[in-house]
Design brief:
The protein is an alpha/beta fold and 468 residues long. 32% of the residues lie in helices and 19% in strands. The chain contains 13 helices and 19 strands. The strands form four sheets. The chain has a ten-stranded mixed β-sheet with strand order 9-7-5-2-10-1-11-14-18-19, with helices on both faces.
Amino acid sequence: MPSSLPPWHPPTGADRIRRLDSEGLTLGRGPQIGFQLCSAHVPATVVVGTQWGDEGKGKLTDLLSPQVSFVVRYQGGHNAGHTIVVGEESFALQLVPSGILYEGVTPVIGNGVVVDPAVLMAELDMLAGRGVDVSRLRVSGNAHLVMPWHQEIDRLTERFLGRNRLGTTKRGIGPAYADKASRVGLRVQDLLDPKIFRQKLEVVLKEKNAVLAKVYNRLPINAAEVAHRYLDELAPRLAPYIDDTVQLVHDALDRGESILLEGAQATFLDLDHGTYPFVTSSNPVAGGACTGAGIGPRYIDRVIGVAKAYVTRVGAGPFPTEVEGEIADQLVERGAEFGTNTGRRRRPGWIDAVMLRQAVRLNSLSEIALTKLDVLDALDAVKVCLAYEAEDGTLYRHLPYHQSVLHKVRPVYEELPGWQTDLSGARAESDLPAKARDYIAFLAEAVGVPITLVGVGPARDQFVRLRP
């Protein structure tokens, strides 16, 4: 079986589609580049990451927010961060939805999120101090709380795993979701009932302190100190924001208003569909938007996948297209690929169409927003992974389900000429050089859904809408 695909030459339209079809690398027909930011009324739109996170979901949500009434964060915790650049100002957000920057938008933290109230209040204080009206924020009473033992257990578990550690942010997110699944978690609404909060706290700390003492040789957590911190200091500040967010969202839908559902992390960090166990503890895929926000799937008729023009991931786990050396350093430096929360250097690699095709399937993507195309500006050639070759010579055009195979595959690349042009000033499709347009068209055809927007820089206005 051949170890590579035939070399790529820039064909036109029908020739390119026919060649890709003959190799089984497309999923659909029709025009592959188009953009319509606001068409007929769209009840709910989901924005989802298609790789391992850090694709630029926050910027896209910020771009779409003026056209909706509610922006709902549906899963994750403060282990996810995104940066919004407005003029000369930069806003690093962790829990608060991107829509907070628009006066006409109600930002919502949904029931599927796990909330550290101290982190949330610090973020709101930061925003208020910079002139942002935070009074519109609503937090689901059904969202679960991140508690002190979650963070302690997260740190200790990673330390004890040693070489096999998962690379978590140590923010307590995984243990909080584990307690939710075990039905011993405390919820945001418990802050409004001190008696219930203390009863639940006593029950759960009996178990957690036993684990901390007998397994990790750590001192017990003091229940009275935790109760004072959460009930006396944090609850009064958080109380004005707590609401029945499911009712709020459905009232808006009944009024014919539009909703934007914002996920954290990304498709291949999904607990069920990601590169397990190197995943998050929730469901970032589009289906998770329904459970995490409390709406049914029939309200969703647009799912926008955000993909970076290359790929990065943080922490451990398989990465077929990972690169090292000079190219890696250039991608990291030009793309500022360091974690918003942790500061950790991200692992870079070439864009992976195998992953993207799987993301199209898992999320029912209607379109893709391609970000950070400008990071590739200086390269004389760019690569797209179209398939994987396994050790036994098997060629995979889909994601192998078995982790042992995925860890050892070799990427099969198509190499395209670089454009070596500064794209940062591009605002229209005609501003993009032909080779950049070829790259976009090739990728869209290989993946099977339209690319409707291209990011060419970090600022709010640095993007190009593509014609239908």
